[in-house]
Design a protein that fits this description.
125 residues; alpha+beta; Rossmann fold; five-stranded antiparallel β-sheet; two-stranded antiparallel sheet; 3 helices; 7 strands; globular
Length: 125
Amino acid sequence: MINELMGGFLENIPCNGHLQDEAGAQPSHKIFVEPETILYHAIQNKEVEVNSFHSQAITQVGKGLKITSYSNDKLIESIEGNASHYILGLQFHPEFILDSEKMRNIYRSFIKEAEKFKVSGSEHG
């Protein structure tokens, strides 16, 4: 949804490993995370196992966004904003894998940024 709001495009994809049958708490594939990104700083790793329940993929990244992780088959798995505002879009569901410290750290990252925003108001940097 973030990508489309920013002018990007999605396409339907075949269910080739991105629409898992297993429960959400079970990771189904690995993603590769770009360094110096919100996601990398949250999980502190260039690779992480994630679940997958999507039948669409980003084909064109929206204005002001950048690709921050991808799967083995080169599908975009996360995007972030280029500006100083905290924008993080994920193709996986960390809320189902809360036994993973890395997934909990994604939430901690969001909470930390929300607290900064609350203190500073609309000015963020």
